[in-house]
Amino acid sequence: MKASSPLWIAALLLVGAAGAFWGAGSVPVALLCLAAVAAAVALSGVARRVLGALLIVVGIAGVVSGHWLAIAGGVLVVASGAVLVALGGRMPKIGMGGQKTRAADPETDMWRALERGDDPTDDPKPGRATSNE
User: Fold this and answer.
1) What pLDDT digit, counting tens, does each position of 89-102 carry?
2) The whole model's pTM is what?
């Protein structure tokens, strides 16, 4: 299983829970579930596990209303929180998906040096004669 799969599972569970809470009339809890999707994607490591623990508490509290959709939403939130607690450390961080190292481009490096205020034509090693002297 790919490392990003549990993150997608947790996000989909939270979106489903948001729909269930919305249908049960618990709009604030539904909005909290949608915000938790963004937080689960943005956080990493211990912070993501803490979010999972908070979601478990919210899911249990959401079941208290007694409406069958709220109970279903609470179960989905608890499941999402359990996934985040158990697998939060192995999930990818935001922006770490396909970063590649930049190949050195002498022309681009020269322009960047000019933007910094450096003279790229200066001899980097003192004591060597330059060709235009």
Assistant:
1) 777 777 655 445 56
2) 0.67
